[in-house]
Amino acid sequence: MTKHPPNRRGISFEVGAQLEARDRLKNWYPAHIEDIDYEEGKVLIHFKRWNHRYDEWFCWDSPYLRPLEKIQLRKEGLHEEDGSSRRFLALSPSLKCSGAVLA
Fold this sequence. Notes:
By secondary structure, this protein is an all-beta fold. Helix content is about 0%, strand content about 30%.
């Protein structure tokens, strides 16, 4: 009997799909799906820039799989909804936060 992959937000279960996977040392790494075993309900994960000997089979409902998170840094600032932009202030590394919330 062929199983169907779960509907997980941010992960498409198809060969080549990008995601993050957790290795045996509990570190998250970018990875992609190399193969899918529909009979067993598993996916073969390849960790990017790692040798293929480290590829690992995961159940497709495993908590060790998550959507790929892309962090984008903007040099010029954030764009608000009204079209204006704010500049980030560069703070001196010697400044410390007192923990107080200032409004």
